Amino acid sequence: MRARLGAPAPDSSLPFVASVCAFGCAAAAIAVTAHSRLLFDHLWLSGALWGAAAALGYAAGWGLSRLLKLQRRALTPRLAVVALTLAFAAVWGVNSIASHVFMSAWSRYLSELGGPGQCLAGTPYGNDRASVVTWAIEGDDRMEVRPGGPVPKGTPKEYKYPTLKLKHAVNGGARPLAPADDASRDLLRSYGCR
Questions:
Q1: Are 73 and 66 in contact (CB under 8 A)?
Q2: Per residue in 8-37, pLDDT tens?
């Protein structure tokens, strides 16, 4: 039986490379939907995105394999390792980018306000001294940071640092943290923030 002109050989690497690309794109889509909380809030939409990513990955892998004339090459262990390594590296990179774009509320607090080099670092609201963080509940995007550390000398014993209240504090959120009330806005200004 003769093979058609342009058809892949029976032992071609074309289906394997296309399948690895499909798997890599689907895994990257899973990482992005998990970090953005879309996976937990809209499961059916996430599944549709995974399927679309897998289909696009398969089509891209098929086209790339045809472009590189891999349909004429037999699948070798070296080609398989290269394809799997590239897919792993791509998924790892997408996961790293997604975890930076869609940070948790505490990570965003550290990168925007309380971490090293930020305006609240070295204050009672810094990451090394803040004692309690109240996380947002479902449907509420507020976060309270309760300061820690000793009260400065010369202040009355009943003095307590006010609680810093922030909004837009959702895990996977992309909006910057902002003061939730006037007292928190004044507190941030007193430390030279925004």
A1: no
A2: 555 578 888 899 999 999 999 999 988 887
